[in-house]
Specification:
- By secondary structure, this protein is of the alpha+beta class.
- The protein has one domain: Glutaredoxin (3-Layer(aba) Sandwich), CATH 3.40.30.10.
- The chain is about 40% helix and about 20% strand.
- α3 links the parallel β5 and β6.
- It starts with a helix and ends in a 7-residue tail after the last helix.
- The N terminus is likely disordered.
């Protein structure tokens, strides 16, 4: 009986973290900044402007291609919509040291965090990378996209512009 209660409690707890659809808030999980300090993801905000949350890894070529493609026009995106991009590396403790090197080499102007234990990845129900979300100005997850093909960054930007202007974006 005790095992059953523990199992049911675990399922309820896990279900509370799994995203069920549009309008969910960013779940709470602890991630590390590049300097090693810790941040709770529930505190992510952007003064009423959209946030892009992009899950990636140092070993994922499509992830890097997507982040590089966004970087080319990121300044324009920020000026036009106020968007902030938060890149979440899912590299574990063995490869997380490569994250800092990659970010510096690439010159990405994003907020980058490391989810070594993949708690945030699980809470956001991310199965594989790249996986991208848009959070509206009210802190609600309103868009998601999995994988990357050349040109997807343009579709992402169109969605950001719609969300920044208060419209719904298809996903």
């Amino acid at each position: 009986m005790k095992k059953l209660i523990i199992l049911l409690s675990s399922v309820v707890l896990l279900a509370s973290f799994v995203l069920s659809g549009d309008g969910d808030k960013i779940p709470s999980a602890v991630v590390k900044k590049l300097d090693g300090s810790k941040v709770n993801t529930s505190t992510f905000s952007n003064n009423g402007k959209p946030i892009i949350i992009s899950f990636w890894a140092t070993w994922c070529k499509p992830c890097k291609k997507e982040l590089d493609a966004i970087a080319e026009d990121y300044d324009t995106w920020v000026k036009e919509t106020g968007v902030k991009l938060i890149a979440i590396s899912i590299d574990d403790a063995r490869s997380s040291g490569k994250v800092v090197t990659d970010v510096k080499t690439k010159g990405w102007a994003y907020d980058v965090y490391i989810d070594e234990n993949q708690d945030f990845k699980r809470a956001m129900n991310v199965n594989n990378v790249p996986f991208t979300f848009i959070v509206d100005g009210n802190g609600k997850i309103v868009y998601s996209h999995n994988s990357y093909s050349e040109g997807d960054e343009e579709k992402l930007y169109e969605a950001v512009k719609k969300i920044a202007s208060g419209e719904k974006a298809a996903h």
